[in-house]
Model the fold of this input.
Amino acid sequence: MAATWLALVLYGAIVFLPQGVTHLYQQVWPPPCAEALQLIVITEPENIPTVRDKADAFTRDETVDGCPKYRILVSPTPPVNEMM
Done:
């Protein structure tokens, strides 16, 4: 009877202990965030504050395990002579 219990305890230690250690390790040292997808929004200069606020709200809501999925940059429309 004692041999059966010993076998069960050893089996449990071999099978379940690594899973518990892995879970504890991830809780103490979470994996680094993957690089966020960078998006660039080009808009008129007077719209920049509004668009930037909306972009910030969107990136705050779109996270995975506390890591941002997107990085949104808001830039003004360049003058026509700079585009040519």
User: Anything to note?
Assistant: The CA atoms of residues 23 and 29 lie 10 Å apart. The beta strands are 37-43, 63-64, 67-68, 70-76.
